[in-house]
């Protein structure tokens, strides 16, 4: 999902059309459109060419660009900036944050129910 958003944002930031980007990475305009809509995923080779053309890492494109150390542990995880911003925003909503932390299954069920309505 992040690939779609980041690809489109970077393409626009670089003043490229889908056709221009497709030509530079040797895929069709339709392929770029599908990558941006999330209906198709690029191959690793194509992802490498996209990252070179747009001058970003593959990690950035797929949303694993921030290494986060787990407190009191030697473990780290990779998160997208959007995920970090979501967590920080969620912490400001104390009741919702506490519900998610204390009963994640219930919180997910409530979210799913609201999305279905």
Task: Describe the 3D structure.
With 117 residues, this protein is mostly helical. It is built from eight helices and two strands. Strands 1-2 form a two-stranded antiparallel sheet. Strand 1 and strand 2 form a beta hairpin.
SSE layout and pairing:
Blueprint: H1 2-13, H2 18-25, H3 29-37, H4 44-54, H5 58-62, E1 66-69, E2 76-79, H6 81-92, H7 94-102, H8 104-116
Antiparallel strand pairs: 1-2
Helix pairs in contact: 2-3, 7-8
The gist of it:
This protein has 117 residues and is mostly helical. Helices cover 68% and strands 7% of the residues.
- Low-confidence runs (pLDDT<50, min 5 residues)? none
Rg of Cα set: 18 Å
Q: Fraction of residues in helices?
A: 55-70%
How do the SSEs run, as a string of H and E?
A: HHHHHEEHHH
Number of extended strands: 2
Q: Can you summarize the main beta sheet?
A: 2 strands, antiparallel
Shape call: globular
Order of strands across the main sheet: 1-2
Structural class: mainly alpha
Tally of alpha and pi helices? 8
Share of residues in strands: 5-15%
Mean pLDDT: 92
How widely separated are the two ends? 23 Å
């Amino acid at each position: 999902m992040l690939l779609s958003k980041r690809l489109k944002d970077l393409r626009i930031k670089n003043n490229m059309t889908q056709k221009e980007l497709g030509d530079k990475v040797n895929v069709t305009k339709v392929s770029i459109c599908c990558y941006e809509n999330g209906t198709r995923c690029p191959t690793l080779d194509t992802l490498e060419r996209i990252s070179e053309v747009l001058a970003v890492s593959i990690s950035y494109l797929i949303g694993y660009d921030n290494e986060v150390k787990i407190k009191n542990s030697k473990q780290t995880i990779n998160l997208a900036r959007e995920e970090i911003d979501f967590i920080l925003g969620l912490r400001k909503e104390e009741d919702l944050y506490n519900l998610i932390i204390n009963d994640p299954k219930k919180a997910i069920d409530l979210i799913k129910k609201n999305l279905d309505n």
